[in-house]
Amino acid sequence: MAVFTAEQRNHGERLDVFLSKQLNLPRATIQLLIKGGSVFINAKKILKSSQRVRENDRVAFAERKQTKQALVAPNASVPLTLVFENQNVVVIEKPAGILSHPTKFNRDYTVVNWLLAHFPEMKLVGDHEERPGLVHRLDKDTSGLMVAARTEEAFYNLKAQFAQHTISKQYLALVLGIPKERSGTITFPINVSLKRTVKRKVDRSHKTGTPATTHWKIRKTFADTFALLDVKIETGRTHQIRVHLAAIHHAVVGDRLYGGRPAMELGLKRQFLHAYSLSFKDVDGNILAFEIDLPKDLQDVLSRIGD
């Protein structure tokens, strides 16, 4: 546990400002640490970043306790593709059908199991022992790019960028029907469905729910039946793209949960949603940017409907 004593010149400073100077971390990162219950003033846990420090206050930052053994077993057989690695981060391509992290139904065949097999030091990184290194996720049947952190510094650096919506994530989605406009933005807040907790719904009144923003534009159309959309999200809510596109009556093809049929007649066994582009700042401030092609199953669908 790191402990800092506030001096006279610090009297009246916001807690996040004070700790940002002491730890040499961005304020957004400090705010996440405070919100997560890792910061104390005079032995009292503080959850508000706006808390003011006083002269002689003892401000403590409790680093995550390191466990000797990960709660998740390594598994190198999970079929992921390593796109990039350095001392700070790992970028991988996840195929459809693979979970991002363990659940009570699948604890051995996920992105996390693969990461621990190849980068065992990651078991001590992050704020959740069953999701070490993970700063975001992709739905099981969504393919594409993911980034994970190899160090605590990288973890909080990425978390801060996600919180500030400065990480760029772009997807390709094939949807039913042709939107009337060439591009648009969806800002419906998202709630958990009362009928099925695995499902999400939008609040068209904007009175309840978690804020969510999705930008889309048409990349290509196929007769009057399908449109290939380029989608960029500012927030990363569960099922965000899928529920937002369904809310404007253009559900993702193959997404049975949100009405995105047909699929099987196209030879598609999952939703047509692929995270093809990802960019972010590394801990040294350099921008890392990645882009990958559509996987074969999605390319085959485009070939069929384009004939």
TrEMBL record:
Gene3D superfamilies: Pseudouridine synthase (3.30.2350.10), RNA-binding S4 domain (3.10.290.10). It is an enzyme of class 5 (isomerase). The active site is at 139. It comes from the Bacteria. The keyword Transmembrane helix does not apply. It holds the Pfam family S4. One of its GO terms (biological process) is enzyme-directed rRNA pseudouridine synthesis. The keyword RNA-binding applies. Its EC number is 5.4.99.-. SMART domains: S4. Keywords: Isomerase, RNA-binding. GO terms for molecular function: RNA binding; rRNA pseudouridine synthase activity. Residues 13-72 form the RNA-binding S4 domain. Responsible for synthesis of pseudouridine from uracil. This is Pseudouridine synthase.
